[in-house]
Amino acid sequence: VHSNVSQGCQGGCATCSDYNGCLSCKPRLFFVLERIGMKQIGVCLSSCPSGYYGTRYPDINKCAKCKADCDTCFTRNFCTKCKSGFYLYSGKCLEKCPDGLEANNHTMECTSIVHCEASEWSPWSPCTKKGKTCGFKRGNEVRVREIVQHPSARGNPCPATSESRKCIVQRKRCQKEGKGKKNREEKRKKSNKDESKETRQESKGRAARRQNREQRENNNKTQPKKRKAPNKEQNLAPIDTAH
């Protein structure tokens, strides 16, 4: 350290030298040496740079270098991020992951191997042939399942998600769509016709009954009333029985 020590330093330095830069730092700042050419210059930082970790002491806070394969570290023996070409595992940087683990090139870490997992099979589908369920004796039926966990790079691959097998059904004729539609239309027309016929018959019956009732009422109004015949016994003269 050069003997020329100054008290009026800047950049967080408590004491400094024109030749060596910072010699000590203000409270809570970390002291670190930076190499410039053939000499080292002291600087004071609020946090340690990449490749260094901080240690606090009563008299000074210092930044120490991580191991050569660490990009960042918590202590010298515990890395938090590795340099390119290394994989992080339990605070260490490894060129190859241990057995039972695999290298994750996205996170650059050693992770557990994940195997594929599939759901249970669905029930077998109806027996079909060329998309139809009638008009044949031998067909195929299928069942499916879903992938619930995709595998990692070294995990067991996924099995088939569908199966097919032969099936036999009782042969039956397919009903033609046009013929079936025509039959349904004819039935509907016949039903409407029967209902209309019954409605017309009921209307005719009601009209006939009303006409008969009105005719009787008119006859009663136009027919003259009959007079009562005189009592014959009252018109007869008394018979003289004296002779």
UniProtKB/TrEMBL annotation:
SUPFAM superfamilies: Growth factor receptor domain, TSP-1 type 1 repeat. SMART domains: FU, TSP1. Gene3D superfamilies: Hormone Receptor, Insulin-like Growth Factor Receptor 1, Chain A, domain 2 (2.10.220.10), Thrombospondin type-1 (TSP1) repeat (2.20.100.10). Keywords: Disulfide bond, Glycoprotein, Heparin-binding, Repeat, Secreted, Sensory transduction, Signal, Wnt signaling pathway. Residues 171-243 are annotated as: Disordered. GO terms for molecular function: heparin binding; signaling receptor binding. The keyword Disulfide bond applies. GO terms for cellular component: extracellular region. Residues 11-110 form the R-spondin Fu-CRD domain. It comes from the Eukaryota. Its main location: secreted. It is found in: Secreted. Activator of the canonical Wnt signaling pathway by acting as a ligand for LGR4-6 receptors, which acts as a key regulator of angiogenesis. Upon binding to LGR4-6 (LGR4, LGR5 or LGR6), LGR4-6 associate with phosphorylated LRP6 and frizzled receptors that are activated by extracellular Wnt receptors, triggering the canonical Wnt signaling pathway to increase expression of target genes. Also regulates the canonical Wnt/beta-catenin-dependent pathway and non-canonical Wnt signaling by acting as an inhibitor of ZNRF3, an important regulator of the Wnt signaling pathway. Interacts with the extracellular domain of FZD8 and LRP6. It however does not form a ternary complex with FZD8 and LRP6. Interacts with WNT1. Binds heparin. Interacts with LGR4, LGR5 and LGR6. PANTHER family: NEUROHYPOPHYSIAL HORMONES, N-TERMINAL DOMAIN CONTAINING PROTEIN (PTHR46987), R-SPONDIN-3 (PTHR46987:SF1). Belongs to the R-spondin family. This is R-spondin-3. The lineage of its organism: Eukaryota, Metazoa, Chordata, Craniata, Vertebrata. The gene is Rspo3.
